[in-house]
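dude i think i finally got it to work??
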Amino acid sequence: MEISGVYMVKTVISESLENSVSYQEYVELVNSLVEISSTTGNEKTEAMANYTMLNQRRMKRWDKMVKLTDQDKAKIQGFTGDVTWLVLTESWCGDAAHILPVINKVAELNKNINYRIVLRDDNDALMNEFLTNGGRSIPKLIMLDNKTDTVLNTFGPRPTKATEMVNDYKLKHGSLTLEFKEDLQRWYNKDKGQSTIQDLVELLS
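look at this
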């Protein structure tokens, strides 16, 4: 059964990769959706379309502003593996808008990292294999070894520090409030992608 299960996961990943797009293609998709006040995903509401518009602005800002230290650049450029970073996301996802541009900055530094993106609601089978605490949380990065087609590791839906903030808040209050979500957005702005960079460097090590 275990061998069958592994084969099934590989098949699901392979099919999702065939439907994947580059980061630039994803940005173009988001731009086109904003033009028609729409969104990705199954829930095409006005609220979700507004989140997509907000996230377009966030992504543009991070595309320009994310900086890496020389030390981090050296670690990334020194990676000698051959991997694909397959990321599940949706255009309305606030965490993704802060994280996907950072992933791109890291992947651009090493030709051995193939960065591909798929939409969660179009890839149910893949999402169901990579749940977070039983939930369909995004963004979710799946790190694949291109030579063996095996899953090496995962990252997401948030950098480690943000995950700790979320877990601590849920422990005290039961669920995330609008006020906390706004605080989290401010944390992302203050952090400037550095926590995500550290987690990605750790993946490569």
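The longest strand covers residues 83-89.
im so relieved honestly
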